[in-house]
Amino acid sequence: MNFHFTKMEGAGNDYIYVDEFKEPIPENIKSALTQKLSNRHYGIGSDGVIFIKPSKAADVEMEMYNADGTPGGMCGNGLRCVGKYVYDRSLVKEKTFTLESSGEMKKVEVIQTNPDGSAKMLKVDMGAPILDADRIPVTHAKTRPFEGEQAVIDEPIEVQGKTYRMTCVSMGNPHAVVFVEETDSLPLAAIGLHFEHHAWFPKRTNTEFVQVLNEEHVKMRVWERGIGETMACGTGCCATAVACILNHKTGNKVQVDVLGGRILVEWDREKNTVYMTGPAEEVFSGIINIKL
Ligand SMILES: N[C@H](CCC[C@H](N)C(=O)O)C(=O)O
């Protein structure tokens, strides 16, 4: 089959974007297609594939698959990139519009443009963080260490014989946020998978390792479910900020420095909504001619 694609990245979190307005892709091949295209040696290389398609309820709908072919839930960097994609192609008329992802409506705003008028920085209203254990979920059929409406804040978790302290936040997908002394020397390749597949996370988890620099600035490295270490994670930055605020480590506005760039997060406690602001870039586009 033949179809067009666009490679985009948000703070280095790179996805292949496929526009289904023009070329619909059969649902039953999306997982296998993603695994093939995302492979960094045998494919184009990406953290996953994002399908952009018409929505009944919003201006546009997006659907994300992780590099391993598992369907992802929410995707913050993807929302900003899809926002840029539809804004730059005039698929939306205003600077503010709605995108549908995982059945939820997200308000996106282009807040800065390039000299050619294309979108440069976008702000997304990511909605309320989910904290209760059953809805994240952070439970295990046998041990059930956390359940019900209880929030998991600063709780010990043992991984490979070492005890870490984690705070669990869902932004539509699960995140375990772990505070560390410093992120640079962290052996993420050795520990990441053990968090992802820990028995307490029956649906696996994304994990953020956070070094607090001061009350408004942190450094973070992320291990994403279904991918591994990535350069950035939008929902992960939101979860990071929420965890920092809940643990009284920062104020309500947090600059999160990730390997691939910088994301600004603000948790408006009155409205109980999280705003995420960051860049979106288009890298290249082309035509895929593939046999599955
Ligand atoms: N990179 C994405 C999140 C992907 C999360 C995914 N790995 C999952 O399975 O939940 C972001 O910018 O928010």
TrEMBL record:
It catalyses: (2S,6S)-2,6-diaminopimelate = meso-2,6-diaminopimelate. HAMAP family: DAP_epimerase. The keyword Lyase does not apply. Its main location: cytoplasm. It is found in: Cytoplasm. GO terms for cellular component: cytosol. One of its GO terms (molecular function) is diaminopimelate epimerase activity. Keywords: Amino-acid biosynthesis, Cytoplasm, Isomerase, Lysine biosynthesis. Transmembrane segments: none annotated. Substrate binds at residues 13, 66, 76-77, 173, 206, 224-225, 234-235. This is Diaminopimelate epimerase. Pathway: Amino-acid biosynthesis; L-lysine biosynthesis via DAP pathway; DL-2,6-diaminopimelate from LL-2,6-diaminopimelate: step 1/1. Homodimer. Catalyzes the stereoinversion of LL-2,6-diaminopimelate (L,L-DAP) to meso-diaminopimelate (meso-DAP), a precursor of L-lysine and an essential component of the bacterial peptidoglycan. The gene is dapF. One of its GO terms (biological process) is lysine biosynthetic process via diaminopimelate.
